[in-house]
Description:
This protein is of the alpha/beta class and 348 residues long. The protein has helices spanning 11-15, 53-69, 82-94, 111-119, 149-164, 179-194, 210-225, 243-249, 268-276, 288-303, 320-324, 338-346; strands at residues 42-47, 72-77, 99-103, 124-127, 134-137, 141-145, 169-174, 198-204, 231-234, 259-262, 282-285, 316-318. A six-stranded mixed beta sheet has the order 2-1-3-4-6-5, with helices on both faces. Strand 7 (169-174), helix 6 and strand 8 form a beta-alpha-beta unit. The model is unreliable at 1-24 (pLDDT under 50).
Amino acid sequence: MLKRTFMAVSTAALLSGLGVPAFAETPFDGPTSGPTAAGGKSIVVVAGDLKNGGILGVTNGGEEAGGTIGWDLRVLDGAGSIQGRTAAIGQALALNPDGIIINGFDAVEQQAALEGVVGAGIPMVAWHSGPKIGCDAPGGIFANVSTDAMTVSEVAAEWAIKDAGDGVGAIIFTDSTYQIAIDKADRIKETIEAMGGTVLEYVDTPIADTSSRMGPLTTSLLQKYGDQWTHALAINDLYFDFMGPALASVGISSKDGPQAGSAGDGSEAAFQRIRSGNYQTITVAEPLNLQGWQLVDELNRAIQGEACSGYVTSPALVTQEGLAKLGDTNEFDPDSPYREAYTAIWGK
Length: 348
C-alpha cells in the first residue's frame, strides 16, 4: 500500500515533498463514531463508466466495504454516456434497493432521473457528483464524497510551474459535461496565470471519447504550438492513456515532449506510466479504496436517519521518486487503519 504522510490538504504541505515524498504510517483522520451496521441491505452502485480508473477504484472499495458490513452490492455500469447513466439509474430504481451509490457523474446531468430516486424515498450518496463536497449535496444526495477538488487542481498547477523552471506553456484538458471538471480546469488556469505562467489553450473534449480524440488532438496541438507546449494538465488521468502513443508515433520521447500531470484521480494506469517514466510525470491521487468505504459508511448513516460524518479525505502528490520507494503497487491506499476504524463503528 502507498504510505504517505500527506494528511493535510494545503498545497504547501503537498508540494513540500515534491520529488521525494515521505512515506510513513498515518493515523486515520476520519470518523470515530456512528451507527452500527443496518443489517441485510440491498444496495445498487451506479457507476458512470467503469473504464475510468477512479470510478473503478471507488467501486472496488465499496464492494470490499459492503462485504464487511454485510450488504449485497450490485454494480450497474453507465458505460460512459449520458443515456447509459440515465438507463442505469432507471434500472436501479426498478430493483427497489435500500440505497443507491452514485459513482462518478454529475448530479445536474441526471437531475430528472435522480428526482425519481428522491421521490421513491431511496437514500443516495455519491462520489464526485458535483462541486459541493460533504453533507447535503444538491440533487437529494446525502453526502458527496471527494477530496477538495480545488486543492487538487492547485497542486497540479503549482507542480507545473515548479517543474517548468523558466516558463510554463500549459494546455489544459477538461470535459464540460461535468461542472466539477469545468471548476477544476478553471482553477488550474487561474493558478498558472496568477503565478506568471502561460495557458496556451483550454481544450474541452469528452472523457468518454478520449480513445478516439486524444491522438488527433495531440498531433494537432503539437503542430500548432511546438516547443511552446511544455506541460499537459488534465482533470483526469484517462486523457493520458492515449496521449503517449500519439507523441511516440511522431518520435517525441517522454522526456522531450510536454510533461503530463493530472489533477485526479490516480488510476492504476497512471501510476504505471509515472513509475516507468512513460508520458506522465505526476498525478494528484485520491484514496479511492478508502472513499469506497466512506460511501458505505455514509449510506449506513443515511439509511438510519443519522447525520453524515462530514469527513473529507486528503489527496497525495504522486511522483516517480515516491513510487520508487514502494514495491510494485500502483494504488494510493493510505497506510492508515481506516478499515479497522469503519469495521469498529459498524460493530463488525
